[in-house]
Design brief:
Elements: H1 7-12, H2 14-17, H3 23-32, E1 34-38, H4 42-53, E2 58-62, H5 87-98, E3 103-107, H6 116-121, E4 125-128, H7 133-146, E5 150-156, E6 159-165, H8 173-176, H9 189-192, H10 196-215, E7 224-229, E8 234-239
Parallel strand pairs: 1-2, 1-4, 2-3, 4-5
Antiparallel strand pairs: 5-6, 6-7, 7-8
Bound molecules: zinc ion.
Zinc ion (ZN) binds near residues 172, 246, 248 and 249.
Length: about 250
């Protein structure tokens, strides 16, 4: 935690401190927050920039991928010289140069690694920026088991979706998408293609949800599913609720 009365602290976070829903007290909470970001693709690499800029103090990052040329269309935190490098390393360096108030813990493995559940158990809030249903289901299950709030974000084509799960009786991922198969192509940008901008919107919005949650302010997307379609200029918020017959979170 940086010295909250130092000139650098007041200067760096001035625009937050001026905001009545954040203020100095909220900024201190952000600097003490403990967040796990899973996936450093389009969504995750967007979210991390605003989490780090906001001074979220402790961020775990999970990804085993290396940067590829095809990533650069949307994952603009990386550049041409980063191709072939580990994403966790490039992101860690980026954050260190942006804001050294932020401590990064690197987890260089995929979410199906047996160590993942233990890692999830160590954080107060989990952000799922992965791009496939299998990973989402595993993250969801671990968050149910360890009673961790989970911000879910997904993209496909021109569309994006976000929900704040597993907080105050909110549904889990499985409650909202009970029939989705692990090998489905739905919301998978590898098979359907994706507009880079949609990943930036989803990742940034997940960072905004994180800030509201940590500062305990505003209306969080619990029991709500935010959907947008950039092509047709549509933003809408649907009501969603816990499925009492959900095979994952029922009785939890
Ligand atoms: Zn459920």
């Amino acid at each position: 935690m940086p010295n909250a009365s130092s000139p650098d602290f007041l200067d760096r976070y001035r625009r937050h401190i001026l905001m009545k829903n954040i203020g100095g007290a909220g900024q201190k909470k952000l600097c003490n927050a403990n967040v796990l970001l899973i996936g450093l693709g389009g969504i995750g690499s967007s979210a991390i920039q605003y989490l780090a800029g906001a001074g979220v103090g402790n961020i775990g990052i999970v990804d085993q991928d290396t940067v590829a040329l095809s990533n650069l269309q949307r994952q603009t935190i990386y550049n041409y010289k980063d191709i072939g490098k580990k994403k966790v390393e490039v992101v860690s360096r980026f954050v260190g140069e942006l804001n050294n108030d932020v401590k990064i813990e690197k987890y260089d493995f995929y979410i199906d690694n047996p160590k993942s559940a233990e890692v999830i158990s160590k954080y107060d809030l989990i952000l799922d920026g992965t791009d496939n249903v299998k990973s989402r289901k595993e993250i969801n299950k671990a968050c149910v088991n360890y009673e961790k709030p989970l911000i879910f974000g997904g993209v496909s084509g021109w569309e994006g979706t976000i929900s704040f799960l597993l907080k105050d009786g909110a549904p889990c991922y499985e409650c909202i998408f009970p029939d989705i198969e692990e090998n489905t192509n739905e919301l998978n940008c590898n098979s359907e293609g994706v507009l880079g901008v949609t990943t930036a919107i989803v990742g940034s919005y997940m960072a905004a949800e994180t800030i509201k949650y940590v500062c305990n302010t505003g209306n969080i997307l619990t029991n709500k599913l935010l959907l947008f379609d950039c092509l047709n200029g549509v933003f809408e918020v649907l009501s969603v609720e816990k499925n009492v017959k959900c095979l994952v979170c029922n009785n939890k």
